[in-house]
Amino acid sequence: QVQLVESGGGLVQAGGSLRLSCAARGSIFRIDTIGWFRQAPGKQRESVAAITSAGSTSYADSVKGRFTISKDNAKNTVYLQMNSLKPEDTAVYYCNAQIVGLRLYEYDYWGQGTQVTVSS
């Protein structure tokens, strides 16, 4: 069994910064892709950023140049550094990962979500 445990959300003023963390815990053989989605009230969940096992990164156009995704392979942890935050970044942020377990099957996992609120 694998769990994604998120931390780092909170309330910040526009222009401020936050760093989200997501630790994958459990019986893990390999993490293929791990990243962040977000969902604002009344809107669909959208991809924010992702990083592959090889270290390739991708970002939504709305966060390019402001957000940086990185990972610590030894800790099975991914980080999302969010700078120059805007009120429109307000959402629940979810960690998502495609993880290969010890029986070599890949599954898709979600974290519980962490609230990010940016005040104007």
Relevant terms:
120 residues, 11 strands, single chain, mainly beta, 62% strand, four-stranded antiparallel β-sheet, seven-stranded mixed β-sheet
The amount of helix comes to under 10%
Can you count the beta strands?
11
Series of H and E elements:
EEEEEEEEEEE
Q: Low-confidence parts lasting 5 or more residues at pLDDT below 50?
A: none
> What class, by secondary structure content?
mainly beta
Helix run count = 0
> C-alpha Rg, in Å?
14 Å
Q: Overall 3D geometry?
A: elongated
Mean pLDDT: 97
User: Biggest sheet: strands, sense, closure?
Assistant: 7 strands, mixed
- Determine the strand fraction and express it as a percent band: over 45%
**N→C terminal distance:** 41 Å
Walk me through what this model shows.
The protein is an all-beta fold. 0% of the residues lie in helices and 62% in strands. It contains no helices and eleven strands. The strands form two sheets. Strands 2, 4, 5, 6, 9, 10 and 11 form a seven-stranded mixed β-sheet that branches.
Briefly characterize the structure.
The chain has strands at 2-7, 10-13, 18-26, 28-39, 46-52, 57-59, 67-72, 77-82, 91-101, 106-110, 114-119. The protein has 120 residues and is mainly β. Strand 4 and strand 5 form a beta hairpin.
